[in-house]
Amino acid sequence: MPNKVLIIGAGGVANVVAQKCAQNSEVFGELLIASRTESKAKTIAERIKNIPVSTAKVDADKSQEVAALIKDFQPKIVLNIALPYQDLAIMDACLATGTNYLDTANYEPKEIAHFEYSWQWAYQERFKKAGILALLGSGFDPGMTNVYTAYAKKHYFDKIDTLDIIDCNNGDHGKAFATNFNPEINIREITQNGRFYKNGEWKEIPPLSIRQDISYPEVATRGSYVLFHEELESLVKHFPEIEQARFWMTFGDEYIKHLTVLKNVGMTRIDPVKFKGTDIVPLEFLKALLPEPSSLGENYSGKTCIGCQLTGTKKNANGTKDANGAIHEKQTYFVYNVCDHAECYKEVQGQAIAYTTGVPAMLGASMVLTGKWSGAGVFNMEQFDPDPFMAEIGKWGLAWKEIFGDEARLVN
Ligand code: NDP
User: Fold this and answer.
1) Residue 345 forms part of a structural domain
2) Are 208 and 225 in contact (CB under 8 A)?
3) What is the pLDDT of residues 24-75, one digit of tens each?
4) Rounded-to-integer distance, Cα 191 and Cα 259, Å
5) How far is the CA of 266 from the centre of ligand 1 (A)?
6) Strands 211-216 and 100-103
7) pTM of the shown model
8) What are the CA-CA distances from residue 3 to residues 10, 248, 391 (Å)?
9) Ligand 1 pocket mutation pick from 6, 55, 83, 92 by most atoms within 8 angstroms of CB
10) 350 belongs to a structural domain
11) Could you tell me if 196 and 74 lie in one domain?
12) Contact 294 CB / ligand 1 (< 6 Å)
């Protein structure tokens, strides 16, 4: 029986989530899209013809406003596709109404550019007691990358030694400078110190200070930089055997040049400054000047390639000894998706970053609604069986491929 679902937010990612839910009409029967600016929700709703969709205005920073919407609409799950700032307020509303929750990015307080899972993991007991489920980080990275890692562990590794998540956007949107998802969240993430995990400790490095050329299959060889990404935190928690975990992302020279200048002149600051007697947060002002991520799709060309490289060991299937006398075989494995910006635009009038985030958000919700993933409490994606997710994700637009052995070693 198709379900009612509340989507909060009406930006680039929400546009994809809503349309993908409508495509999966066996599971999603009716949508309410609620956001700060209702006109944007209406634009998305108008693209959907096959299931009922309504819209509403909500300030999701206000838990009671969200709870009132939930009481009125009675959804089976709330998809938080607004911003990380709203995570806790929406989780509170879900607790107050006994409703399942899903998001694509972990909580970050507005006044500190710092994100980590502790704030949301702290809801574990309350969600458990209420008998409801929170699925955290159901986008691509985090999200698909967590499922890829769980799939690799389940099928190909007894022990994972290293994990390198690599994220390449080899697209061109034709603008001098723009961010592919919310500019505020994106710039806060990239201008902070980088971090990676090694032998039980987090190593902190200056922003964009570790670089390597990586050859992304089917796409390009691109300079890639180590930065901290939230799925590293949950993956080393749930696979504690991992000795080293890093996250790499491509940035073009033009992007870095613009970002460096903006940072040097103070435009990426998140503390208020007085301007003509008014408090202005420079990064919020900058966001108002930059293109909306949802507007980038039309002339976007090129592809993304995002995947996970893992090394580790697997028991030799025959139980025979290898050259060193060990019965474990060394494994290198790479699993990835390639997504084309122009194809995404043709299908849902959005670009590939929004698409690769929105499809796993829909499928994560579908896993919960169909009971393929079930339980009470707060969960990261890798805590569930990856197989049903991996079996379906290709059908919804994010086909995956895998490579083994020396060819799978893309990062050193
Ligand atoms: P956008 O800026 O395009 O959209 C955000 C939407 O949230 C806007 O419609 C905005 O409203 C709405 N919103 C903001 N604050 C509130 C509020 N207080 N109440 C109600 N609505 C609000 O961002 P994206 O679509 O690019 O990103 C959405 C989310 O996806 C972000 O959390 C981002 O971090 C995450 N993301 C996750 C990825 C992953 O792979 N896991 C990758 C990319 C993004 P308004 O229109 O009025 O501004």
Assistant:
1) no
2) yes
3) 999 999 999 999 999 999 999 999 999 999 999 999 999 999 999 999 999 9
4) 8
5) 24
6) unpaired
7) 0.95
8) 20, 37, 22
9) 83
10) no
11) no
12) yes
